[in-house]
Write a structure and sequence with these properties.
The chain is of the alpha/beta class and 332 residues long. It contains 13 helices and 14 strands.
Length: 332
């Protein structure tokens, strides 16, 4: 029997989360599954399509409760995208659920043509994204998906940071007349938002104000940005934290505001440093003529170290401690 994976949060990070009053929620994937059940119960035209992934996609209860609204295609991701697109074209609100690494590599042509070029209101759910598969290694890591999907016309790309953003992203997808891709990991996430928070696709959410450094995080890196900002506050630095849940279309206004008002900008993503959030933000700043110290924190172009997701985050400086250290170096 294998040992349990190490916590995503060190004892110091957990203590900081407690100081901030953060409460641990469930995995965003669990929030997605619960929200999808509610939508499907209310609307029988809501369907889920899986590629032998109902277990890892947390759709077991969905299949038991609503068996006629779940389509299983087996390990055939290209077929999954085609069927998801076809159902959407026939008036269904279809959600195609598959591991992000395979969904966005094996099926890129189908995403491009069957969904985006055909302009059908289908939603693709990339599960176990980033380095969530941990020790299974690079074959199962999804560190290319943002770069590939940002280059495809007519596709909105969303990475929720917590349960609140997850629920509202799925609700938005259910109403959207356009294609969407939504990406989830597997770890339980702290709840980051107030109950009165506002979520709009394409609009970053400011979690903390500051004018020394802005951390722009996306997906499950956002909580580490918030904890790093709190740690830096104890050293007299005021750091802004943005949850850039929508990578495409990018909230360029929020990026430029951060670049103009703060001394430095750091982007953080569970993705390659090439082609993702960081390069999108850098392009926005450069094209607007905004020049500030800038750093992209992500996975470099190398053979990724093998280990649990938490180990990989810490190795590449994506934890609270690593991000705080990066900010201090950038301000020197």
């Amino acid at each position: 029997m294998s040992a349990p994976a190490p916590s995503m949060f060190t004892p110091a990070a957990k203590a900081m989360a407690e100081k901030l009053g953060l409460k641990m929620g469930r995995a965003n994937l669990d929030e997605f599954a619960a929200t999808l059940i509610q939508l499907a119960q209310a609307n029988p035209n809501t369907v889920a399509v899986t590629s032998d992934s109902r277990g890892s996609g947390k759709l077991g209860p969905f299949g038991q409760m609503l068996p006629k609204q779940l389509v299983e295609v087996g390990i055939a991701e290209q077929n999954l995208v085609g069927i998801t697109a076809g159902l959407a074209a026939c008036g269904k609100k279809s959600f195609g659920v598959s591991p992000a690494c395979f969904l966005t590599a094996r099926s890129l042509e189908q995403i491009k043509n069957d969904i985006c070029y055909s302009d059908v209101p289908a939603t693709l759910i990339g599960i176990s994204a980033g380095v969530s598969y941990g020790a299974l290694g690079s074959t199962h890591h999804s560190l290319h998906d943002l770069a590939a999907l940002r280059a495809i016309h007519n596709l909105t790309v969303v990475l929720p940071a917590d349960n609140f953003e997850t629920r509202h992203a799925i609700l938005a997808a259910a109403k959207s007349p356009k294609p969407m891709f939504i990406r989830f990991g597997k770890a339980a996430m702290y709840n980051l938002h107030r109950l009165d928070a506002k979520f709009e696709v394409g609009e970053a959410i400011t979690l903390r104000e500051g004018k020394d450094v802005t951390f722009i995080g996306t997906g499950e890196t956002v909580v580490h940005c918030l904890l790093a900002a709190a740690q830096l506050a104890e050293r007299g630095l005021n750091c802004r934290v943005l949850s850039m849940h929508t990578v495409k279309p990018l909230d360029t206004e929020a990026v430029l505001k951060a670049g103009r008002e703060c001394k430095a900008v750091i982007t953080v993503e569970e993705h390659s440093v090439h082609g993702g959030l960081g390069e999108a933000c850098a392009a926005a700043l450069v094209q607007a003529g905004v020049s500030k110290p800038f750093r992209i924190v992500g996975i470099p172009d190398e053979d990724t170290v093998t280990g649990a997701q938490a180990d990989i985050f810490r190795y590449y400086g994506m934890s609270m401690e690593g991000l705080a250290e990066t900010a201090l170096k950038l301000l020197k």
